[in-house]
Amino acid sequence: MPISLLLSFLGLIIVLATLPLIAEVFILTVAALLPPLRSRDGSSGSELFPISILIPAHNEEALIGRCVRSVMASAGPGTEVLVIAHNCSDSTSAEAEAAGASVLVLNDPSQTGKGCALSFGFAAIQRGRSQAVLVIDADSVVELKLVQTVRRKLLAGAQALQCRYEVYNCQDNGRTRLSALAFQAFNGVRPRGRARLGLSAGILGNGFALHRNVLTRVPYNAHSVVEDLEYHLALVRAGIRVEFIHAAAVRGEMPVTSKGAQGQRARWEGGRIRVMKRWAPKLLAGVISGQARLVEPLLDLLALPIALAVTLLIVGALLPVTWLRFYVLGAFAVFLVHVTTAALTGPGLWGSMKALSTVPGYILWKLWIFPEIWRASRANAMWVRTVRDSHSDGK
């Protein structure tokens, strides 16, 4: 095989591997920059539309009190705050009750992972009078207006919602600043772009709400390590659109140490690979059969992590293939606009720009932990709790 043909073949592989991400990022960033569509809000009636706040917690004694107090301050009348103490060996239950929440205990070693806690909690809520459920992670703090904003959207007819999800401890170090920028891109710019295009915004695992009719129509059976992604795909296939709430945010605690970040990243990205193996053929079959709403979820599912895509693009730029270099140049231009858009909507432009200086080291770190990511993508991979760095509950 001539060397030029071999190089072109390698270039084609790079394009096919990175194109879903480039297309996804380009389309959604452009859409996010357009003026937002006028949103609908219902009345502020509360007792007429009771909501349950569900907080799954596994050994979260250090942070659960802060979370519950934040939710209680936002809740208002007609709201139940329910903590699922899931296989806890610490004082999570006592801390949650002291902060004002009701607690349900799930002690079953055979049921591991957040999906099991959510299934248990959803079943309990459906036996009550609540018309909807809002899921908040135990390490999070919510904005004061969040619950009432969610309630108004549900009263206006929304069936599923995703609030803006940001990083709480974004100023701790360079790692959390970079996480905050990535969150602004993945959890802010992209859902906003989907909302502008009338697409389903996605479920990000924290700060999402479901009407009880949705849980009846699409029972919650998502028990993978990325249960949020898995359940969203089930909703999209069922024709249910998740609406995006940009006006109110939930902020979660990100790992500060390398050990905590490594475990969390491996679980997230390994889980996405596993879900991709299972769901990509289903989505592709749906697209071929004419279900246009599945095109964007398919692109999102096939999209490589940005760090891996950048690595492949750098390799492509080094190959002496002219057309490939033009493609790489265009791809980096797309990333530049995407990241700049995220930085402009973040908590601090200068801090976001400083975070970008750590990207080369972050890419090398991602390549280093790729074996762990791959192990997490196996069908028998187990859910592993993220190592917490904070020991303050905000008292």
Give a description of the structure.
- With 395 residues, the chain is of the alpha/beta class.
- It has helices spanning 3-33, 64-75, 92-99, 114-126, 146-155, 174-196, 212-217, 227-237, 258-288, 295-302, 306-318, 322-344, 349-356, 359-368, 370-376; strands spanning 51-57, 79-86, 102-106, 132-135, 140-142, 160-167, 208-211, 243-252.
- It folds into 2 domains: 3-35 and 272-376, no CATH class; 51-257, Spore Coat Polysaccharide Biosynthesis Protein SpsA, Chain A (Alpha-Beta Complex), CATH 3.90.550.
- α1 crosses α6.
- α3 (92-99) links the parallel β2 (79-86) and β3 (102-106).
- Mean pLDDT is 86; it is low at 391-395.
- It is globular and about 70 Å long.
Please outline what is shown here.
This protein has helices at residues 3-33, 64-75, 92-99, 114-126, 146-155, 174-196, 212-217, 227-237, 258-288, 295-302, 306-318, 322-344, 349-356, 359-368, 370-376, and strands at residues 51-57, 79-86, 102-106, 132-135, 140-142, 160-167, 208-211, 243-252.
What labels describe this entry?
globular; Spore Coat Polysaccharide Biosynthesis Protein SpsA, Chain A; alpha/beta; 2 domains
State the domain count. Answer: 2
Q: Mean pLDDT across all residues, rounded?
A: 86
Looking at the structure, the CATH topology of the largest domain is Spore Coat Polysaccharide Biosynthesis Protein SpsA, Chain A
CATH class of the largest domain: Alpha Beta
